[in-house]
Amino acid sequence: TLMAQTVTGPRPLVLCGPSGSGKSTLLKRLFAEFPDKFGFSVSHTTRRPREGEEHGVHYYFVERPVMEQAIANDEFIETAEFTGNMYGTSKEAVRDIQSQGRVCILDIEQKGVEQIKKTDLNPILIFNNPPTIDELERRLRKRNTETEETLRKRLDAAQVEIEYGLTPGNFHKIIHNRDIDVAYEEFRDFVVDELKKQEAMGVRFN
Ligand SMILES: Nc1ncnc2c1ncn2[C@@H]1O[C@H](COP(=O)(O)OP(=O)(O)OP(=O)(O)O)[C@@H](O)[C@H]1O
Ligand SMILES: Nc1nc2c(ncn2[C@@H]2O[C@H](COP(=O)(O)O)[C@@H](O)[C@H]2O)c(=O)[nH]1
């Protein structure tokens, strides 16, 4: 409701899309263009860090028993098993960003989205759609972060996620991510427009 929204601040933004579709690339540009407006919800994961990834910045990298205990302690809004690893959004990660008056951005996969939809988080849902699975494979290979096995698992998951993502009603906005510059503009314009609408309804922003 309008009252609740006024009290809780801007709606979080969920960006979902197959691994390698370019979510992190879009977010990196958004954070660079608007350094004070948004904040990234730092997820927990049991996968190993990639080169350049920092604990507490890209993820909280934890061992599985630690994550399982935290889930048992009811510390998470949503959790999912994805290609053999656990991922999850902690309540604290979102609270952290919201307390700074920033728009909280979640980069999560499909099972997480389905759980978030059942909470009172009320996010704006965006699906980042790659041109083809072949192009997704090219992007993932070029990124050089996966083994043949994890690459295969990610591409298998992508089939299912694209079907869900393109099903009408599941997301508020679909970004067709072919050319990165075009995709970014579409993404940015949609997000900025959404924030303006909320501002017009009295939601306060940074
Ligand atoms: N529109 C694009 N065209 C070509 N290459 C792209 C495009 N967008 C991103 N890339 C490249 O594709 C690779 C995957 O992009 P990125 O890491 O942003 O994907 P992601 O959706 O965040 O993946 P993951 O879910 O695995 O973290 C990167 O090497 C990135 O530089
Ligand atoms: N349900 C959740 N999914 C998450 C979370 N954090 C990230 N993700 C998604 O996992 C895959 C793989 O990510 P990668 O960093 O290993 O490439 C990708 O689709 C992310 O969006 C989370 O907290 N919950």
Automatic annotation (TrEMBL):
Phylogenetic lineage: Eukaryota, Metazoa, Ecdysozoa, Arthropoda, Hexapoda
Domain of life assignment: Eukaryota
Recorded GO CC terms: cytosol; photoreceptor inner segment
Species of origin: Drosophila hydei
Family of the protein in this entry: Belongs to the guanylate kinase family.
Assigned EC number: 2.7.4.8
Enzymatic class: transferase
Protein name per the record: Guanylate kinase
GO molecular function, one term: ATP binding
Quaternary structure annotation from Swiss-Prot or TrEMBL: Monomer. Interacts with RD3.
Localization, UniProt: Cytoplasm, Cytosol; Photoreceptor inner segment
